[in-house]
Amino acid sequence: MSITFDDVLTWIRSYATVVSANKTYLTELDSAIGDADHGINMDRGFQAVTGKLDTLASRDIGGCLRTIGSTLVSTVGGASGPLYGMFFMGMGGATNGKEDLSLAEFAAAFEAGVAGVQRIGKAEPGDKTMLEALIPAREALAGAAVDGSSVAAGLARAADAAEEGMRATVPLVARKGRASYLGERSAGHQDPGATSSALLLRSAADAWSGI
Prior knowledge:
Elements: E1 3-4, H1 5-21, H2 23-33, H3 38-53, H4 61-75, H5 80-94, E2 100-101, H6 103-121, H7 131-147, H8 151-167, H9 192-207
């Protein structure tokens, strides 16, 4: 089975609901090592995104993802707007003109999204950023596609990998972003960007559990 345009909409709307429900939690995580606004900013951005979804004129998944990305860039403050915006725009560029996706095509689009985040964020694994969740998820998706897994099984693997990567940020010392200003004091705290990224993967896994 494939991921349809409607499935993508379901995923993004579900994630917007999850972000809203976890807005305070994400902001609390950010208050320890950042600007104490990650949850607030992400909620504002994805509320704006959900408003745009109803106005899409075509069933082009790539166009939908690019719209999501551009909306996040224009509405989410701090570093999260450009980073999440580039993630979705990278995915959109890889899915241009497609109305459905195989797991392999989604994995390739996800890889393009992660590459965009790395390109503008200049971060590497171990820097205590959202990449700590996104890179394990990317590898899990790629492996699931090679194995011929179903969409549901592949996304479950990716969500588990992202959550493991998220938890692994706790002992790390931040080397990028606002948290890096704290130096060694950034250790002992879970990264908010990795947390919102893990929630993104879990939202997809939950939304697509029947595919």
